[in-house]
Amino acid sequence: MVKIVEITPEHKKAVNDLIKREWGGPMSVSRGRIWDTSVLPGFVALDEDRFCGVVTYRIEGDECEIVTLNSLQERRGIGTALINAVIDVAKANSCRRLWLITTNDNTRAIRFYQRFGFSLRAVHINAMDEARKLKPSIPLVGNDDIPIQHEFEFEIML
Question: For residue 37, what pLDDT is reported?
Fold first, then answer.
């Protein structure tokens, strides 16, 4: 049974290691802004105390952005449970909107977000050119050899 808990100091090394491996370090870029995920709040998914997922988020005004989301075991409800934990926090903080950015190459995530109930709000054409100015380590080519060019913005109104 997967358990979702807030990130604690005991989880930080595993979280930071995962984000470094999956995101190229603690810095994440969305909509032309850079975020240090090592200081953001979030949740971890634990399966019998084994680390199996993480989500980080930030709240600004009445909006909550999911900055990173990773599930180490697909099709077990881990991503869904992590997003639901963020939704609970967003509602508790009177947020009206939950949103996130993914890139055009991340087709599995795009399918997942739509199945979850997110709506495509915008496609930011060639946004990755600007993102690479903030984080040059973003690769030019991503999943399935698709060039990483655009940001897809998904949202759920709360």
Answer: 87
